[in-house]
Amino acid sequence: MKNLIILGIDPGSKTTAFGIVDCLNKTFYYDFVRLQNIKNFDDKIHAVFTKTQEVIENYDISEVAIEDVFYSVNIKSSLKLSEIKGAILAAVKNAHINIVHYSTREIKQAISGYGAASKAQLKFIVEKILNTKLDKLPLDVSDAISIALAHCSYKHTTSRIN
């Protein structure tokens, strides 16, 4: 497998997290933008767009993996999350990088072998895979890293089949 740098993104209306994983040697980096203190929603969209561009510019990203929007009973929240994801997609496409979308279940299945794993279980497994502790970081960061790792796993499996 050629060296791939995957940017995993966990879009959120309170925190949007970025996990950057080198699939070959399992090194990782992360970043996140806290949005809860930004009152104007348009400013939140701009903050996410700008941070996404910044992360892409700072790392040699091969591909982007992003979690699909989870549609809940609260339609207003789902729509806002979709707008945040739209800002991310615009920034990624501006950089001409391929984007792959995964459901939460697909990510959990790839990392833990169990599609209904909890966030805490996922974080524990990510820490074991990368031999690190992510204690002082928001769970969104371990989620973003797990999205990148899941894509690495799918890419590795696909390359072995082909």
UniProtKB/TrEMBL annotation:
EC number(s) reported in the record: 3.1.21.10
UniProt keywords, alphabetically: Cytoplasm, DNA damage, DNA recombination, DNA repair, DNA-binding, Endonuclease, Hydrolase, Magnesium, Metal-binding, Nuclease
Superkingdom to which the source organism belongs: Bacteria
Catalytic activity: Endonucleolytic cleavage at a junction such as a reciprocal single-stranded crossover between two homologous DNA duplexes (Holliday junction)
A GO BP annotation: DNA recombination
Keyword Iron-sulfur: no
Gene Ontology terms, MF aspect: crossover junction DNA endonuclease activity; DNA binding; metal ion binding
Uppermost EC category: hydrolase
InterPro entries cross-referenced by the UniProt entry: RNaseH-like_sf (IPR012337), RNaseH_sf (IPR036397), X-over_junc_endoDNase_RuvC (IPR002176)
Family, as annotated: Belongs to the RuvC family.
Name of the molecule in the record: Crossover junction endodeoxyribonuclease RuvC
Lineage: Bacteria, Pseudomonadati, Campylobacterota, Desulfurellia, Desulfurellales
